[in-house]
Design a protein that fits this description.
254 residues, 9 helices, globular
Length: 254
Amino acid sequence: MTGDSTATRAEVCVTAVVDAFRDDGEVLASAFGTIPAIGVRLARHLYAPDLMISDGESRLVGGTWAVGTRPEGDLEAWVPFRTIFDLVWHGSRHVMMIPSQLDVHGNMNLSAVGDYHKPKAQLLGVRGAPGNTVCHPTSYWVPRHSTRVFVPKVDMVSGVGHDRARAAGPGATRYHDLRVVVTDLAVLGFSAEGRVRVRSVHPGVTVDRVRENTGFPLDVPDDVPETRLPTVEETRLIREVLDPKGLRDREVSG
């Protein structure tokens, strides 16, 4: 597969999202953020036709449409809010969330920064993160890879990491499936011990730069590949169909 050498950093991030979802089959692909939204639509268009994508309200929609616009595809199903919980409990969903903090074991915080009883900043709350992380595949998108996000210990656990899932027992570990962390610098996964591990670095990024921007020791293999470039066709679809206004470059520059 030949990569497009004209691809921007944002477009490389899109292809990393594509690869996170391309083999999922018939599941609800819930992607938060501009680049994840482009990625799941591109994954369905080219590789995973059975992926289910919501219009962000109460319907599953077919087709391929640009981010920031109304869906133009066929209505596939009505999914009121209560139906989302059925998909969650049955594991028929892969979510990509945006963490405010993430630690070495994959514990995620999007609730509050600082002491829980008197936080410096109140954020979104746990949202669906506890159920997501113990019921179905969960991935993360970090638009700015930094020590503010990748911390030694999260201030509050919203999404369950490997260490806490093991401590909670089989009820938490049975379907616990942290897949991938895509950032503007690299693609991360998890080692057999459940620690954050570097899978690839984006073109032009060094492993040392990833280390410097991570607040804990990373598991780094001896040979770290570059994240793949998008194909010429993937680049065309990103630029002409999925994001003609270039909204991806507002989320990741370079």
